[in-house]
Amino acid sequence: MLENIDLTYLLIVLGSILLSMTLHEAMHAFASYWLGDDTAKLQGRLTLNPLAHIDPFTTVLLPLFLAAVGAPPFGAAKPVPFDPYRVRFGEYGAALVGLAGPLTNLLLAVLTGLFIRFSGIAIDESLINVLIIFTVVNISFFVFNMIPFPPLDGSRILYAFAPDGVRNVMERIEGMGFTAIIFFMLLFYAILSEPFTLIVRALITLIAGA
Known about the structure:
Layout (H helix, E strand, L loop, with lengths): L6 H28 L4 H4 L13 H13 L21 H30 L5 H21 L8 H8 L2 H12 L2 H31 L2
Helix pairs in contact: 1-3, 1-4, 1-5, 4-5, 4-6, 5-8
């Protein structure tokens, strides 16, 4: 399978990832700063410089590997640090910080997908292919990061509305650090990968008709 890798496709995926994840993480940082917490700014994350945000494994190697084997390319960047006790509106403010990144990806996908849908034959097919890949990357990032499992962004929304018992469990999971991420990835590939792919394809069809 890997000997048939399309290098042009992977380069387009890589470019889409770097742009999408940079905007994703930057919007986390801008949202937390706007809500009153300057932690991200003090650590140099209030920037559109991709070098401040990317993680070599989860931002580059993992999504490129998934793209190479024909799976929707999802991943994550270095988490933007913020203090949920310093943002306005408490847990709801923290939820807004969490939402800022995935909603940025969704907005990028919607704008690009609508352009694909309504452009017809007015633009070159090769450009259409680039835009479709960009849409796939952003929809994949949106769906993956909205999963409510710590430390993914969706967990911040769950924190805002879950009862104390659920929050305690989530805090213990988050406290496990990298071990929790390994556990989640095993769980994802065992149970969630197929519904994830179906949701991504359905959203792409809904938005872009592609």
